[in-house]
Fold this sequence. Notes:
Blueprint: H1 3-8, E1 13-16, E2 20-23, E3 29-33, E4 38-42, H2 44-53, H3 58-64, H4 69-80, E5 84-87, H5 97-101, E6 109-113, H6 116-120, H7 122-132, E7 136-140, H8 147-156, E8 164-169, E9 184-189, H9 194-201
Parallel strand pairs: 6-7, 7-8, 8-9
Antiparallel strand pairs: 1-5, 2-3, 3-4
Amino acid sequence: MELTYLQNNKDKYIHVFSCCIPVKGHERGAIYDLQREEIELVPNTMIEFLDYIKNKKVSSILKEFESDIMAKTYLDFLEKNEFIFYSNTDFFPELAAKSINEDTSTIQFMTIILSEFIKNNLDIVIKRINELGVKRLHFHIDSNNCMEEINYLLHLLEYSRVTNVSFSIPYQKIDKKLYNNNRLKKYIYLVLPKKKWKKIMK
């Protein structure tokens, strides 16, 4: 668990994202992420914990559950999966169910071919993507060494409404750091080396 990160936010309050709906079941619970259109199955005890920590200070939760390893594991899981966030404000009004479920996207899916023109105007492109409410975004990149570009694109999209990003790229070694990005869903290799094709065909 990233205790340093929690300590840096100890004076802030814990809030649950309005698009994340925790549901307690008979044997286990689930957290429905309406924005990403994903369901995370979790123990019912995590649902109870999530309900308990809502709107409380990080410092008070860390103190109360100081010796509880499972509680710290739950907190780490909820934060890493972006079910909760920290804020200096102690209260956020909850959104009405209609506003959570109503899709305001003008365009849900978009494919972008990463040309030099797009690269030189990325800030404007990302701004337009946000204005349109794009949720699923696919980039086509023809560079044989594009890991730095992918990292930069994901950085620009960090606070966007995009929840699902995919890339079609030439075959190359994938930067391991990218596997930890929740928005990144898949890579599609445009061309595989002959050695790789032989392995697949066997």
